[in-house]
Amino acid sequence: MNTPSYVVWMLCLVAFTCAALHAQSTPPDFSGVYYPINPFGAAALGRGAPPADAKGKQKGPPPRPTQSAPLSDGSQGRSPDAPSLTPAYMAKWEMIRKSRMAGSSEYDNTAKCLPPGMPAMMSMAYGMEVMQNKDKITFFSELNDALRRVYLDGRKPTQKILDDPTYAGYSTGHWEGDTLVVDTVALHEASFIEGFSPHSDAMTVKERIRFLSPGLLEDRLTVTDPKALTKPWETVKTYRKATSGNDELREFACPEGLGDAK
After folding, report:
1. Containing H/E element for 260?
2. Domain for residue 106, yes or no?
3. H or E segment at 89?
């Protein structure tokens, strides 16, 4: 018996609709190792990024960072796109700047082998691996072996967590189509927004993470801090997924070098 054409058409329409709905409900898989694209802005184009051949294709990971890798001492002032600090926190920044210009590492978390913290961790000067399952996404940075988790299972930070801030903070996320929306709270005041711009215990970070194209990941960050910032600070980071053979991160045994520090 021949099936009427309109029945075939309806069956195809249902199958197509179901496939489309399934595709929309399945979030993208961010798993893999990524390297930053221009992590330090136009003034340091390419610093920290993997070398490329004449066609722009990555040839390998960047050189391994060192425990004593120099950071900006603030001697050139603040960049025009730096976070806009309130007078009280601008005074803190000036104090830190004078200390660093004098050669002190008192406010240099990298020299102390401390984690870069959020949102500085997402500047990702070196490689970072993303591990994903349905309940959480883990970001592991080669720099100081920094780690953060984004919980996707609906959990919320408890008061105990809020009272015990950490460098990475506490991140929860949800999917809006193909975009991962992340909120981070409970951030340690000893970390920095970027560079050495200080923040308060009220700082929060919102991210929108998505693929711009296959293997090209974008993270749009908005930092809010009613005590330290005159307005929210926004920045965009982009990362390229490593190819097979260039996707192995090295251990960053930062404390090994502390005994040799002068």
Report:
1. none
2. yes
3. helix 87-101
Residue 181, SS3 per DSSP? strand
Domain count, the chain: 1
3-state helix, strand, coil in the chain (%, to 5): 20, 25, 50
**Tens digits of residue pLDDT in 118-153:** 999 898 778 999 999 999 999 998 888 889 999 999
| Distance in angstroms (rounded) separating the CA atoms of residues 16 and 100 | 61
Instruction: Give the phi and the psi of residue 5 in degrees, each rounded to 5.
Output: -60, -35
Q: CATH number of the domain that 126 lies in?
A: 2.40.128
- Domain extent for 164: 85-244
**Is residue 200 a contact partner of residue 227, using CB atoms and an 8 Å limit?**
yes
Phi-psi region of 145 (alpha: psi -120 to 50; beta: other; left: phi over 0): left
